[in-house]
Amino acid sequence: MTTDVIEAKNLVNADPVFGQLSFDNHEQIVFCNDKDTGLKAIIGIHNTVLGPALGGTRMWQYKSEWDALNDVLRLSRGMTFKSAITGLNLGGGKAVIIGDAKTQKTPELMKRFGEFVHSLSGKYITAEDVGMETEDMDIVREVTPFVTGISESKGGAGNPSPITAYGVFMGMKAAAKFKYGSDILEDKNVFVQGIGNVGEALVEHLVNEGAKVTIADISQERLEEVKSKYGATIYGGNDIYSEDMDIYAPCALGATVNDETIHKIKADIIAGAANNQLADELKHGKLLQERGIVYAPDFLINAGGIINVYAELENYDRAEIMRKTENIYNTTLEILENAKVNKLTTHNAALNIAKDRIETRRRENAN
Ligand SMILES: NC(=O)c1ccc[n+]([C@@H]2O[C@H](COP(=O)([O-])OP(=O)(O)OC[C@H]3O[C@@H](n4cnc5c(N)ncnc54)[C@H](O)[C@@H]3O)[C@@H](O)[C@H]2O)c1
Questions:
Q1: Does the annotation mark 9 as catalytic?
Q2: I need a labelling partner for 126 at 20 to 30 A (CA). Which of 39, 42, 134, 218 fits?
Q3: pTM of the model
Q4: Residues facing 193 on adjacent strands
Q5: One Pfam family for this entry, by name (predicted)?
């Protein structure tokens, strides 16, 4: 259900929340509004069977409230399965703030948002996502303890993005091992789409390994910066999906594997950091499987960030964070092999394991 297909006069007949296609029995959805600071946010709590719902806050200029709601529903659901498959005792949640992070984000707005998080008494724990920085979480920390991803100087584990990038790199190597029989990425043609916090750190790993890296971003400034640091090639074309490449790494926003792009993609492997890369998990997962494109499930390989923030709750040290993140390699390889043997899409193979873990805990909790 989207705004495109509903005329204004028919809106009254729509079920705008529980009727959304992306609604998946979410436990709680909280709409937050503050006139003074201009805050408009939605907190989505998908599932808390394994623990409190932890997931970052995204600030984005959504085209409509529907888009924002849809995003928070999809993202919070993804967090449930990400934590479950990574073996963390966390549920899935996420928050979106509607607005331009560059011009509308103020300390007052972040504090007010933190108060809304606090009002949930720990059922939802926040962290940073797109449009948020560690310093923003430090501000949220002034009004609630239910926040992670705060600065190291304030007792946090710091910016999770480099750890996320390392996990994506591990997942990509596992996918290469599965596809090519070797996990060495030297000379592989890798396109990184979105060179923000995670994308840049991924480029660094890839360049160090000798991969041929092409970068794409909507920000020319970022492209120049990353090119000058690592010597990557800036993508000059206008349809990245049609390009010849070995590996496509989506590291910007989600749903880039969709009805329009999927038939053009020539990559052998898709492995990136973006959440919800498949616009339609079932349909596009199946199409990738049929076309022999190895898809490393996003919620599995981009879990480094959540491992990093989980460390703040469990007091892990750096070595344990790195060990757990490195293990993404083994889990990815196991899931790709499991999918092949059981003739499943890789997404479903990963999802089944995550769902089993939640179901087992649900039964234990019930006894
Ligand atoms: N930061 C983390 O630890 C983490 C963890 C898990 C998942 N993710 C996901 O990874 C992705 C990247 O996260 P990030 O923290 O690097 O975000 P970021 O905001 O730092 O970077 C995103 C980059 O993508 C670029 N971009 C936006 N739209 C684009 C487009 N259409 N084409 C090309 N580039 C585009 C932006 O200009 C920016 O440089 C997001 O989807 C995020 O949800 C991040």
A1: no
A2: 218
A3: 0.90
A4: 216, 250
A5: ELFV_dehydrog
Residue where a domain terminates, one of 137, 154, 171: 154
Number of compact structural domains in the chain: 2
Q: Are residues 186 and 244 in the same domain?
A: yes
Annotated catalytic residue, options 94, 123, 188, 324: 94
Task: Determine if residue 198 is labeled as part of a ligand binding site.
Answer: yes
Q: By residue range, what is the domain housing residue 127?
A: 23-77+89-154
30 annotated among ligand-binding-site residues: no
Atom in ligand 1 nearest the alpha carbon of residue 305 = 3
Ligand 1 atom 32, closest CA:
217
Residues with CB under 6 A from ligand 1: 129-130, 160-161, 164, 193-199, 216-219, 222, 251-254, 273-275, 302, 305
Closest C-alpha to ligand 1, atom 21? 196
Cβ within 8 Å of residue 352, ≥6 positions away: 344
Q: Which two tokens stand for residue 71?
A: 């995003």
> What's the CA gap between 209 and 204, in Å, rounded?
9
- Provide the CATH number for the domain around residue 45: 3.40.50.10860
Q: Which of 75, 17, 64, 72 is nearest to 43 (CA)?
A: 72
User: In this structure, are strands 39-47 and 28-34 parallel, antiparallel, or unpaired?
Assistant: antiparallel
Q: Where are the beta strands (DSSP E) in the chain?
A: 28-34, 39-47, 53-54, 57-60, 91-98, 124-125, 189-193, 212-216, 233-234, 247-250, 269-270, 294-295
